[in-house]
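Notes from the pairing session

We agreed to fold both candidates in a single pass and log them together. This is the raw record for the first candidate, unedited. Please don't reformat it; downstream parsing expects exactly this layout.

Candidate A
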Amino acid sequence: MIADFNLHASILGLNSAGLIKGTPYPGTFMLDRQGRVTQRFFEDFYRERITASTILMKVGTASAPVEAAKISAGHIEITTYPSDAVIAPGNRFALAIHVTPAPHVHVYAPGAQSYRIVKLDIAQQPYLRILPMAYPPSETYFFKPLKERVPVYQKPFTLLQEAVLEVSPEAIKALAERTELKLSGTLEYQACDDQQCFNPASAPLSWTFKLTPNITERITTPR
């Protein structure tokens, strides 16, 4: 549910360093109830567009828009869902992985040495580009026996993995006959409690999207 934000899209008649004059590059602004801009998102390529659901996930104002999958793995609970149920070539969408460690358990965040940090590995597919993972802030855990300080996640947290379904002519042709896209991956992690560390583990994950054709013609309505 959107409480304090309204979504507005603006097509900017700007170009990158003046190299492609006249090419519109879209931007999205988030406004509060007073009409003040609170956040903005701009595209690097005019044919690739971030979906509205992905923007809402990035700013933390949306609940799961589609059916979520829940998995009980060793020492953690996982809830995962995509930003959109339907995608098209050129869409920039996201996968949310919400992780809840068991009581008194932590998993390791980026920067931890000698431990397996939590990360998502997506199986490669043609015409799918995986973007860098967005990690939430971690906290420092002090392990007294080893006098060790490491970055960890002890409270529930959400990883946001963005991806782009490419919009090249080859991609559009290859995807034209398909009605769905299935993604698979694994969440890698290592859990520890206050007494011991457990073996590194992984949990299989999957997502299914419906595919829709890319719209290339302007839709007009009769007057």
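Candidate B (folded immediately after A)
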Amino acid sequence: MNFDLPVASPGAAETDQLLGALLLISLAVLVLVFGLMALYGIRYRARSTAHRGAPGEKSWRFEIAWTTVTIVAFFALDVWGADVYMRQSQTPAHAMKVYIIGKQWMWKAEHEGGQREINALHVPTGRDVQLIMTSEDVIHDFSVPAFRVKRDVLPGRYETLWFHPNRAGTYPLYCDQFCGTGHSEMVGDIVVLKPVEFSAWLSANGENGGTLADQGHTLFMRYGCSGCHETTEGGGGGTVRAPPLIGLYGSLVPLADRTVVTADDKYIRDSILMPASQIVASYPNLMPSYAGQISEENLVKVIAYIKSMAGETPR
């Protein structure tokens, strides 16, 4: 255990408290069990004249008491740990979103404002940050010890992770899953800035191509999506009838198999790469698959464009 590990988020502090409580209770049980073994081993050793009592004098009160106490203590730790896990698994509303793409052997980060980073991630203090992550090749693992968070990053799907940095500084980022010969080189830095400094960094590192949504709009037009799908800028006037994208993100989508799904990042991604897997009710299965034709980075941009229409009302 590294007791000098930085604590840069409230979740990290609570995780340390939970592990510390587990360590102390485990040590207490260890001392109790082995202490009693040593005590009785010495007291009632061979050739000892200690009185061993009669069977009728034996009492179970001590055994029942310490067994009950340890069961209650470990059950309380279990409840506490489950509560911490559930809170760390549920991203707070209005968290700042950053897209992370793992690739042998680097981390690529893309902010919603269009800023891009490699093996680095700038975030502000005092704000919840959600990472939406995927891999372009093999399984990676995004790990930031200072926040006590880590999550496998899998090819072909999105994984999410969130944290709340509360201490400015630079903290190491690692890949905790062996991902090839360059695994040890897949490291980076999480740079936590004060809000004013972070705003200045965003302004100084803005992309000429605009926000992710702006770049996604360009790709949306380039791939010909506007010929079938209606957006806030029109489109959908072709001969193929396709679901409108206005107000899609976050809404409930009825499918042809009579199930209903929420239009989140994963749903939109699967609809682009595997359109036949979730066919929208009342629409024919005519959309081609873009698997192998669009990179993960460009896919993130197209999804960002579709998400930008979430608050719009279909015409």
